[in-house]
Amino acid sequence: MGRTLAEKVWDAHVVRPEGGAADGVPDLLYIDLHLLHEVTSPQAFEGLRLAGRPVRRPDLTIATEDHNTPTLDIDLPIADLTSRTQIDTLRANAAQFGIRLHSLGDADQGIVHQVGPQLGLTQPGLTVVCGDSHTSTHGAFGALAFGIGTSEVEHVLATQTLPLAPFRTMAVNVTGVLPPGASAKDIILAVIAKIGTGGGQGHVIEYRGAAIRALSMEGRMTVCNMSIEAGARAGMIAPDETTFAYLKGRPHAPEGADWDAAVAYWRTLRTDDDAVFDTEVEIDASALEPFVTWGTNPGQGLPLSGSVPVPENIADDDARTAAQRAIEYMGLVPGTPLRDIAVDTVFIGSCTNGRIEDLRAAAKVVKGRRKAEGVRVLVVPASARVRLQAEAEGLDRVFTEFGAEWRNAGCSMCLGMNPDQLAPGERSASTSNRNFEGRQGKGGRTHLVSPVVAAATAVRGTLSSVTDLDLPAGTDLSELDGSPLPVVNA
Amino acid sequence: MEKFAQHTGVGVPLRRSNVDTDQIIPAVYLKRVSRTGFEDALFAAWRGDPSFVINQPAYAGGTVLVAGPDFGTGSSREHAVWALHDYGFRVVISPRFADIFRGNAGKQGLLAAQVSYEDVELLWKVLETRPGTEVTVDLEARTVRCEDVVVPFSVDDYTRWRLMEGLDDIGLTLQHEAEITAFEAQREPWRPVTLPAKHLPDQPIVSARAV
After folding, report:
1. CA A449 to CA A307: how far, in whole Å?
2. Which residue from B minimizes the CA distance to A229?
3. Cβ separation A254–B190 shorter than 8 A
4. How far apart are CA A299 and CA A231, in angstroms?
5. Does the model's pTM come out above 0.90?
6. d(Cα A205, Cα A167) in Å, to the nearest integer?
7. Per-residue pLDDT for A296 more than 80?
8. How far apart are CA A480 and CA A330, in angstroms?
9. Band of the pLDDT at A489, cuts 50, 70, 90?
10. Beta-bridge partners for A101
11. For residues B104 and B76, what is the distance between their CA atoms, to the nearest angstrom?
């Protein structure tokens, strides 16, 4: 019987097979790339020091500062003392153990899941780990990439391996053509709403089908990024010409004969025709429209044309109780059309939707307009390189003329570890990945949306799609994608 | 890691599903660089409510948390396990755990015991009817006992063995160092390395300012 993509990558990394014989007994897997950041690494380095162990492969390890870093005044000492201590700790650990670090103010600093791909370090067929659940992002390249806890971070630093129990496999087949105005974000929000926050538990998801093939690398990263929100350990997409074109010429991409050898291998990284998945799910992309969440977990989402659910109409006890609690926390009235929900803040950024194509798509919507009165709009590029590119394309001016704040790179309001937070009761439309209670600030209320919906919402002040705006006659909605704006620095 | 065979303690019914790791410990508490002292951060957003279950005197000193399905979803932060452990919990019972949380729990000697939803209901009923009731969790027999309710739980064989023996993962792996070295010798030469560092030309980054 054939093997799935995930199984092929797994099999190529088994240092010591143990699994299969008994329940939960792990294989020992080799790790090709280990990404570090300031929040989940200090206790791991401390563990190494206490045990007198070195880092086995500093040359397969890279660190950046992203989770708690400010997006303003980055040239000044970090005002928050505990954040500063955590950053200083990472710098000291990187220096002591010889690990490459891209610090705040460096052109390669940024969200760890953008830094790996933009440097060309994230490649097909690799095993990639990081002490961050959104490591699934790197699966867009056909890598087996997953988040780990701090004990596992220490384990990888010490041994460059991890004992892992085999995963089950799931195919999510996304067929058809995505309608204009809908995006990769709407695909993944629809997938999560369909299978639930626990639907992917124990599985590696492979996203397949025409709608996935049609996505750019950045769109694929958005899809794989939120695999964890469906409970999956990882998400993957088989590499193809789109993948190779993205990688070619990046700083750490193979060159010359190495490139040819790598591409030859990468072409074998696809699920065999006779392979069988443990679970299969079908989604028709042509039926999708912009999706938004109304509740406090990413599975509580609906098409924008819908209304806040009425809990009494939900048959399942547990789902009804959860919906009641979520609606109460979110300060919503059951039955309210989602388009009538007014927001205080719009956040465009994060490892889900903070890349150049996301910024372009949002900029096209807001160009030449003014933001709605009283709405705060924060635009936070995923990395310093993304910020530089956006500035070279004039996007910063589009956003600032719209009335948005153009910030430095980092995780920012996605998780509110830095000063970018919602106040209690404040409501956001956010291009990030989690609408958990208090995620963006204690008492904050989050609606997850795509960059285009975020931009349209910033124009109108209520949850909106681009079709709710007054568009010039003849506007082609399919041009509101991630391609560069027609006029550059005019 | 301490060995774990059997544990008896007050059961705490947490009648919620999808208790994500942002609820177990909000991100603002993740800035510490120590591995202990996270007990004050556990369920921080809910602790202010006097009626929240762990604030009720009858459940004080509880060590067995009985929660709804999809416990520990979201962020990979191991701080969630540290906070539960530092507070005094030794066992979490749920019908379904997020994968990363379950893995993290096993590293720290916190038992993540999977019990069917129907059986969790039975446990909740006893613990809510008679607050302060003790629960006994037997890892050898894989059973949870709470008064006359005795229900099975599942945990994979490997995690159970490691918990019962109190084994350290890194030490176990380093017994196979020769195999790791042999694996490294046959890796393809084009696989990427982070050092020496390559990148696009450096460019100055201008700081954004408050508007």
Report:
1. 15
2. B74
3. yes
4. 10
5. yes
6. 10
7. yes
8. 30
9. very low
10. A63
11. 8
Beta bridge partners, A1, equal none
CA distances from A1 to A6, A19, A173 (A): 15, 19, 21
CB under 8 A, 24+ apart: contacts of B52-59: B53/B12, B53/B13, B53/B14, B54/B12, B54/B87, B56/B131, B58/B131, B58/B132, B59/B10, B59/B12, B59/B131, B59/B132
Q: Which helix (H) or strand (E) holds A75?
A: none
Q: How far apart are CA A3 and CA A277, in angstroms?
A: 9
Say yes or no for a CB contact (<8 Å) between B99 and A201: yes
| Structure-token match 């002490």, residue found | A131
Q: Which amino acid is at B23?
A: Q
Q: What is the 3-state secondary structure (H, E, C) of B61-77?
A: CCCEEEECCCECCCCCC
DSSP letters, A129-154, are: EESSGGGGGGGGGT-EEEE--HHHHH
CA-closest candidate to residue A381, choices A402, A401, A404: A404
Which token pair is A242?
């789109």
| Residue B15 pLDDT class (50, 70, 90 cuts) | very high
Question: A288 near A192, Cβ under 8 Å?
Answer: no
Which chain A residues are closer than 8 Å to B203 by Cβ? 107, 388
Measure in Å the smallest separation between the Cα of B89 and chain A Cα atoms: 19
Tell me, what's the ipTM? 0.94
Is A193 within 8 Å of A291 (Cβ atoms)?
yes
CA distance A58 to chain B (A): 8
Query: Measured between alpha carbons, how far is A157 from A452 in angstroms, rounded to an integer?
Result: 40
Q: Across the strands, what pairs with A169?
A: A204
- Inform me whether the pLDDT recorded for A459 exceeds 50: yes
Name the maximum alpha-carbon separation found in chain B: 70
User: How big is chain A, counted in residues?
Assistant: 490
CB contact under 8 Å between B173 and A68, yes or no, is no
CB pairs under 8 A between A and B: 254
Q: Are A237 and A212 in contact (CB under 8 A)?
A: yes
Name the DSSP class of A61.
E
User: Cβ contacts (< 8 Å) between A406 and chain B: which residues?
Assistant: 208
Q: Test B76 with A131 for CB contact under 8 angstroms.
A: yes
Report the amino acid identity of residue A282.
E
* B68 contact residues in A (CB cutoff 8 A): 318
- What does the radius of gyration of chain A's CA atoms come to, in whole angstroms? 22
Q: State whether A46 and B17 contact (CB < 8 Å).
A: no
Token pair of B193 as six digits: 């390395």
Give the CA distances from residue B135 to residues B8, B120, B138, in Å, rounded to whole numbers and listed in that order.
6, 12, 10
Within 8 A of A73 by CB-CB distance, chain B residues are 207-210
Q: Which residues pair with A203 in a beta bridge?
A: A168
CB–CB of B150/B119 below 8 Å? no
